[in-house]
Amino acid sequence: MIIIYLFIGVFATILSALPLGASNIAVINTTLRENVKQAFKIAITAGVAEVLLSYYALDCNEVIKGFFDTHLWVQTAVAVLLFVVGGYLFFKKQSVSKSNQKKRNRSKYTTGFILGIINPPVLIYWVIAFGVLNNNNFMLSLQSSFSVLFLFFSGVYLGKLLTLYAYSRMSVIIKNKVNNITQILNRVTGLLLMIIGLIQSTQLYFL
User: Fold this and answer.
1) pTM score > 0.85 for this model?
2) Distance CA 143, CA 165 (A)
3) Which residues contact 76 (CB under 8 A, 6 or more apart)?
4) What percent of the chain has pLDDT over 70?
């Protein structure tokens, strides 16, 4: 019955990855600008980042929870960064050369990993998720058997990959129906990032 930990990992990660975040937006953006193959490169390393975050949360969940509760500046910095990047995308003019295109293609793996790993809300999510699992008799810790941990983290990776791939495939429908979308895409992506930053700031200081 330890196979259930694979499905727990998949399900928990889908819940984490479904809300529109930086990785999801990057996958949508890349699919619309280029193709599914390039977007999948982002998903591959974003999945690795998700595994690392969940592993770290499992290793020291109480320490992490206390750190974010007492150091709001970390979450504030992330919110400000999202807002600044969003503003840049919203107001910048489109001008992409072939050399820039090649450079962007080479950085897809790096982009996916960075966007996946610099994500405090996901880290907090995993702290809460492990608490819920342990309270429901699905005991998980670094002292769990290798088989349990392997299945769970495999599920985490698979769940992230499947969710981002689903976002990418849905984006293809948009790409096939809309022409000359680059300029609109920059503004929509920038607006979404600014909204995410504002929401995070609101949650920190007003809720």
Assistant:
1) no
2) 32
3) 201, 204
4) 74
